[in-house]
């Protein structure tokens, strides 16, 4: 084990406080990161891209205290310009109008460029693969566009009909008439398709997404090119004004947000963006709701529960399993190879979110929420304890419910997997917050004063070689840290 391993302890993101403008990459203002070293010391801070976890996708890097030359700033600006969408939202909208009026046999989509082709443009794409576009596909762009499959930054997992209908039915039943779709293109299109059927109360929706291919299908008040990791509107003030107008609840039209961020996303910046959206909403409210939070649903894997609740304490995790059409592994219940680990986190009262009985959910009157059939209420813990959809069991020695596969280990004094690396040696892992070997993170005296707790970024590839994410656990046979366990689960998610 080298010295270098010893002092490397993870990377933490510092949420901007508005003091100092961050430098921009093509994805808007970069995020400020801090290397955390054992002993609670912090390392040199640096800026890196907010949206891309892989340097291959965005190589932006700058030390916080670095002096950047004029020439480099200019080069950066022209690089940022070159990554802008080819059309403005207004232009996309005009193109869409023209495209819609074309006869069916002239409606073509270039698969290579992922763009709807107007008659004058076909020539330039003649060597590309193109397809005919049906009216149904125009209404459901997620059926036409190729899902982005970048495993690290932006794997686009699209809701199954089961999940998207559940979300929409639930929100409609709760009386919401405006849905802010953050990274949920499929929900937005379902809303529009339903409105056409005229069987339900009409709903409005606004899609905020970084994937500007969707801009082709929507008007200016239906789509904003947006980065949810830094709350950046690529279309500037005109675009953030669209959000403001949408969040204004006129004629009693209640608004709700549904966000489904990429699973590898950092919780803290996401929570910060959602809080800013809520703040904007609050400012637009009449005075009687000056303390209220905007109703929100955040879709994310269950193992991020502690992290999300740390950032947004008014949220609750619900048992509903969200599943995806194009995720091969995780499906609802037993239809996939595994149960989906993706859940709803919400600040809406859990008892009001009715989960479907026919799928095996039931209401727990003690917990006052709907739970999965295998999530049995434990009289000793007085909760329905299961997080992962399996039936947990109570360990009287630990005094809590644990995963069914865990067994109580006498030498460790706690429940663990039967083949866990056993013995007191693992305790040397120490505190995940400050690095002290004398206590665990929970008991860390620096926990509240230090900004080092919680989810670390996947810092691999950030800031070059010397900043690469070194393993937290050095010796073989040590128990995995929370972050390492999450990383393993995340890896499985991106199958
Ligand atoms: C896991 S997919 C969710 C799709 C959703 N399940 C649906 O069916 O509508 C993540 C979505 O967030 C978008 N996204 C990824 N990174 C983003 C970012 N930094 N800012 C805004 N949107 C982003 C993707 O384009 C994609 O639409
Ligand atoms: Zn970037
Ligand atoms: Zn093309
Ligand atoms: Zn219960
Ligand atoms: Zn229990
Ligand atoms: Zn136990
Ligand atoms: Zn043990």
UniProtKB/TrEMBL annotation:
Compartment(s): Cytoplasm
UniProt domain GRF-type: residue ranges: 25-67
A Pfam match: Zn_ribbon_GRF
Molecular function (Gene Ontology), one example: zinc ion binding
Basic residues compositional bias, start-end: 467-489
Keywords of this entry: Cytoplasm, Metal-binding, Methyltransferase, S-adenosyl-L-methionine, Transferase, Zinc, Zinc-finger
Disordered: annotated segments: 448-495
GO cellular component annotations of the record: cytoplasm; nucleolus
Domain CTCHY-type: residue ranges: 359-420
Protein's recorded name: Zinc finger, CCHC domain containing 4
